[in-house]
Amino acid sequence: MTVTAASTPGEPTEAELRALDAHWRAANYLAAGQIYLMANPLLREPLRPEHIKPRLLGHWGTSPGLNLIYTHLNRMISRHDLDAVCVWGPGHGGPAVLAGSWLEGSYSDTYPSVTRDEEGMAKLFRQFSFPGGVPSHVAPETPGSIHEGGELGYALSHAYGAAFDNPHLLVACVIGDGEAETGPLAASWHSDKFLDPVHDGAVLPVLHLNGYKIANPTVLSRLPEDELDALLRGYGHDPLYVTGDDPMAVHRAMAAAMDTALDRIAAVQRAAREDGATERPAWPVIVLRTPKGWTGPHEVDGVPVEGTWRAHQVPLDQVRDNPAHLAQLEEWLRSYRPEELFDEQGQPTDQVLECVPEGRRRLGANPHANGGLLLRELPLPELERYAAPVDKPGATLHEPTRILGDLLEQVMDDTAERRDFRIVGPDETASNRLQAVYGVTGKAWQAATLPVDEHLARDGRVLEILSEHTCQGWLEGYLLTGRHGLFSCYEAFVHIVDSMVNQHIKWLRTTRRIPWRAPIASLNYLLTSHVWRQDHNGFSHQDPGFVDHVLNKSPEAVRVYFPPDTNTLLATADHVLRSRDYVNVVVAGKQPCFDWLTLDEARGHCARGAGIWEWAGTDEGDREPDVVLACAGDVPTQEVVAAAELLRRHLPDLAVRVVNVVDLARLMPAEEHPHGMPDAEFDARFTRDKPVIFAYHGYPWLIHRLAYRRAVHPQLHVRGYKESGTTTTPFDMVVRNDLDRYRLVMDVIDRVPGLAVRAAAIRQAMADQRSRHHDWIREHGTDLPEIADWQPGS
């Protein structure tokens, strides 16, 4: 429901404060127990070495602060009947979030064997950071999580992604002060300039400053408060401060801050939704300052621990071997008075659960944190409405991404009411030829506008910010909460999110093994403005290596496509937008490209993933070809078709087979990738022992790596991008990298037995053309007329 103002304003009662403190102490006890104990979970007997885990793994330092936030979010949700989720940003905060989930019962609902009693508590403790158990950070296995805690920087962008188009959802987001130092987090503070108070939900950031990272102080914790305040207000937020180390005082202050934050959010939404306010609001942010490792050991071996970096991980080690440490651990655990918090069966007492919400309102049970439960099929139009007519291969040209933009415009229109599809990108939607979508929706924008601005809209569903990290985080949060989307990006700069896509792929791989996680819509990349058509921007914009990076990851979760023309792009887009639980990378050009296949042919080609183009070669099929010209990518395809024409003209007796690859994983063996080809099928297309000249869009060694087990691999020669780039003409880019049609013909002559002598004059003519090209572009600044005006079959 929409956030509403506090129905019972004022400070919490003493009884309520005691209940909050009981829940917090219980969560702290459970967090510490997970790090240390494998038996005797309620200290029914004196602690002995055999009760302690042999390897102490986990992070205590952030846990008390996270437990405090979980406790007070429970109060806030119960008090206001909120629909809320939380993104837990601090790395390795798993003990706290698992403790909160176990206390509220959502953990036992999800994992029935981990019951909410003494036996279940023992299992909860033992499984943590233990072989066959669960990770030390908030992970896919954690109920209520949409954010992988193992890597820092993305919590706030994930939170905003979850809030977009979720008008009744509150997304709390805990930002650790170590995470706050990262570039992605710093940029994502600007997400409030894109959040529409009418159609989107609210994000409540909680900046948790406990002072230290692993070994060093944190920047924001050492800023003077007025400087920190100015920074947050400059980001567009209205800060609320909670500071201290006295538990009851902090509970009182935290409850007041939460109530005030909700009142401010309610006022913002009411002003926008009921009164028509259009000015950009100042959303609240809570700044929580508590000691690192709060309530843990003050000192160990005479050295300060609580409130220092030493509390970051395991504040007491050698517990099995050091009797003094064992005694101090027992004293620490008993300081929470577990006998007051858990009954004889080990179940949380009524006081501990007094402020805990019920059912789907619990943070560990909210369906938005298991977005596949809410996912609806994306309405996709019939492709025939957008298909390029193809009477003859190569007779016409279209800009593939522009046609795709027409299709996406219809998708935007068909989802206008339900609002569950977004396009994100770093200021490149129009540059990448997708601007047709502006006929239906604008670019989300809450900041100031000028008369010269175009396509800005408060309720826009295109998200553009010149931070690839923020785009990625927004889309991940959007998908993980049950929606659909597309990330459009210049090929060279998508590398900026290499590390983020790693984590998302790992998340997907893990969730495939978790039965209660429902499949979500795939993360779809459209990479365009690619290496072969960045001749005008130069070397800095020329890098096709994202595909290499992605194909290093779990084969079950990654797919890479190189549609060679418009209709194949349409068929590919239709496929990936319908898919679930993948990261799909689609590399396609935005410049005019020859139309090779009809829509029906394109669909068949996509289904095969790699196919023989009989019309392009001279292979009659009654014998094995003398050579195979293979290609993947739009420009390599054009050069291969042109090379095949040259061979047909100059060496008409040569049997040339052209194979186009649209699904790169087809090159892999079937046992290595679900899309991999069996050897017999691969050999039928590529032969076992004939020369294969492969023109590839990216770095050549990737093709060798994918195909190294194939029988034909010793005969495989790959041409692709080899870091030879500059500002030049389009054809010079392929010449510089030896991917041009003339070089391909020379490769055929060099590698087909008997041709080196017989076709020496032809080879020399090809080399002369390359030299002529070199001189021509330096005199005229344009490509040779026979290149610029070339048309297949002409």
From TrEMBL:
Residues 13-373 form the Xylulose 5-phosphate/Fructose 6-phosphate phosphoketolase N-terminal domain. It is an enzyme of class 4 (lyase). This is Probable phosphoketolase. Keywords: Lyase, Thiamine pyrophosphate. Residues 590-791 form the Xylulose 5-phosphate/Fructose 6-phosphate phosphoketolase C-terminal domain. GO terms for biological process: carbohydrate metabolic process. Its cofactor is thiamine diphosphate. The keyword Repeat does not apply. Belongs to the XFP family. It comes from the Bacteria. Its EC number is 4.1.2.-. One of its GO terms (molecular function) is aldehyde-lyase activity. Gene3D superfamilies: 3.40.50.920, 3.40.50.970. The keyword Lyase applies. PROSITE patterns: PHOSPHOKETOLASE_1, PHOSPHOKETOLASE_2.
